[in-house]
Design goal:
The protein is mainly beta and about 425 residues long. It folds into two domains: about 150 residues, TolB, N-terminal domain (Rossmann fold, 3-Layer(aba) Sandwich), CATH 3.40.50.10070; about 260 residues, 6 Propeller (Neuraminidase), CATH 2.120.10.30. About 10% of the residues lie in helices and about 40% in strands. It is built from four helices and 31 strands. The strands form seven sheets. Strands 1, 2, 3, 4, 5, 6 and 7 form a seven-stranded mixed beta sheet that branches. A four-stranded antiparallel beta sheet has the order 10-9-8-31, with no helix packed on it. Helix 2 crosses helix 4. It is globular, with a radius of gyration of 23 Å. It starts with 8 loop residues before the first strand and ends with a strand.
């Protein structure tokens, strides 16, 4: 994997820091900030060759994060040859199209590397608020754009951006299902487990591989596999082993082992050794474990009360509490890295699948999707502000992202195909 070649340079004056607006990205009063992203200015032939991909990634990040209303370039009034410094910008042209903030970027080759400079301006004040410079080895324009997008996100929110994280998912192929590992937007997708049926993946700690269930030996066993490496067995019981989840510190895994009408949860070391059964409900199903951000608890699905519901317990199996009481089919819990919410899939009264969150403290249920066909399998971004999910709203199963409050749903810019069970690595 390519590594960043140069140190991130963020230049913000002390006065700007004192007056810097912090976008409150949740709540009823939230309003996306109108943002203009000017086309990148390429300094040489190599930069021009990379500009389209760089621009596509930066605009997608700014659009999908939910912070901004990215303005249509067809409305722009500024001269295409306008400069990138405050003194060379006619800010009235940007104000007249409704922009409150403006991003200008420059690209240039730096040996075998690609360099990008991003400047963020306050349109009303007519001044530069942020400058970021990055160089990436191998001239990977999308990943360079993701780094710059993270800097802009952190400037406005004081929180880390999610744009350099990785996701995994299953893609249906002729005769089976393959597991892929990709950048957060679905690009640079690399097949990790192919051939036969490979399902229910999760990103390994560090993002360099995937754990998943596979039928490659005829039985549904649990494996871990790094990109370009060989699979290693985590659990081979001869029974259906699935739903693996890594603890936040990467030291443990939780998973489900099913046998006929019974399925129990186990916790083991990250390499699969020392498994301990943490549920014991004969004739009932326990599945889909998800760790709390402090690693002390597990959310999971159980039908011990008659229908699938979301439960929470200590990681050793003690102090089990039912969390959802509405609906008769609640599944696929995903615990937010912020700790306050658990997202899940529920089947409503019309037999449609939609996404909801439940507040861990008070049990309040919030609906995130409705009247948009089927929506399932949520997974939180590392900062807890976005949710990755599967939707059929555009026909077929595609991956979408939205805010944790259900706003701004956007399809990932992926090749045509059928995608399921995404997991967003931390």
């Amino acid at each position: 994997m390519n590594r960043t070649a140069a140190v991130l340079s963020v230049l913000v004056s002390s006065a700007a820091l004192a007056q810097q607006p912090v976008i409150e990205i949740s709540g009823a009063n939230f309003r996306p900030m109108p943002l203009a992203v000017a086309p990148p200015m390429a300094q040489d032939d190599a930069a021009r060759a990379a500009a389209v991909e760089f621009d596509s990634a930066l605009v997608f990040d700014m659009t999908a994060c939910g912070l901004f209303q990215v303005l249509d370039r067809k409305s722009f009034l500024a001269d295409a040859k306008e400069g990138v410094t405050a003194a060379s910008i006619t800010f009235s042209n940007w104000s007249n199209v409704g922009a409150e903030s403006l991003i200008k970027t420059q690209l240039a080759a730096d040996g075998d590397n690609l360099r990008a400079d991003l400047r963020l301006f306050s349109v009303a004040a007519g001044k530069e608020e942020l400058k970021v410079s990055e160089t990436w080895t191998g001239r990977e324009p999308r990943r360079l754009a993701h780094k710059l997008a993270n800097a802009v996100y952190k400037y406005f929110t004081k929180e880390p951006g999610p744009f350099e994280s990785r996701i995994t998912f299953v893609r249906k192929v002729a005769g089976g299902k393959d597991v892929y590992l990709a950048d957060w937007d679905g690009k640079h997708a690399v097949p990790v487990a192919t051939g036969n049926i490979n399902v229910l993946p999760t990103v390994m700690p560090g993002g360099g591989g995937v754990a998943f269930t596979s039928y490659r030996r005829g039985k549904p066993d649990l494996y871990a596999q790094r990109v370009g490496g060989e699979p290693t067995v985590l659990s081979a019981t001869g029974r259906m082993t699935s739903g693996v989840a890594y603890s936040p510190d990467g030291s443990r895994i939780a998973y489900s082992v099913a046998d006929a009408e019974n399925a129990e949860l186990y916790v083991a070391k990250a390499d699969g050794s020392g498994p301990v059964k943490v549920t014991d409900t004969k004739f009932f199903l326990n599945s889909s474990p998800s760790w709390s951000p402090d690693g002390k608890k597990l959310a999971f699905v159980s039908n011990r009360a008659g229908s699938p519901q979301i439960y929470v317990m200590n990681a050793d199996g003690s102090d089990v509490k039912r969390l959802t009481f509405q609906g008769n089919y609640n599944t696929t819990p995903a615990w937010s890295p912020k700790g306050d919410l658990i997202a899940f899939t529920a089947r409503d009264e019309r037999n449609a699948f939609d996404l909801f969150t439940v507040n861990v403290t008070n049990g309040k249920i919030t609906r995130l999707t409705q009247d948009a066909k089927g929506n399932e399998e949520p997974s939180f971004a590392p900062n807890g502000r976005l949710i990755l999910f599967v939707s059929t709203r555009s026909g077929g199963k595609q991956l979408f992202v939205m805010t944790h409050e259900g706003n701004n749903p956007v399809a990932l810019p992926m090749d045509k195909g059928e995608y399921t069970t995404p997991d967003w690595g931390r």
